[in-house]
Protein: DNA-binding transcriptional regulator YhcF, GntR family
Organism: [Clostridium] fimetarium
Amino acid sequence: MILKIDMSNDIPIYQQIRNQIVFGVAKGELKYGDSLPTVRQLAADIGVNPMTVNRAYSILKNEGTIIIDRRHGAKISLKSLDSTTFDIDFDQRAILLISEASTRGATKEELTEHISKLIDIVYQT
């Protein structure tokens, strides 16, 4: 999996790393048990400070997307593949995005259509 990090983007780099790994899992590019690069290796590959990658991995670990073992490194967790789990954090983030779209003038129908297109992007095989 190749991460696409935009250094000029307003989204913090650690968040972009986290997001790209989550997208990789959602699209099936990363599967249960797949190893991720070490913090140092990924930092060197994309040209960032290792603390930036460490922060992204820490978030992913706390979310249950990855497990970290000192001997075997970071791997995709089985929990990350459980698509039936909608926790309060997921709901809060979804409500925030819906609220932002609403404040920008999006109608319920427009939002539904747009989200449907995004879902198709993630689930295309």
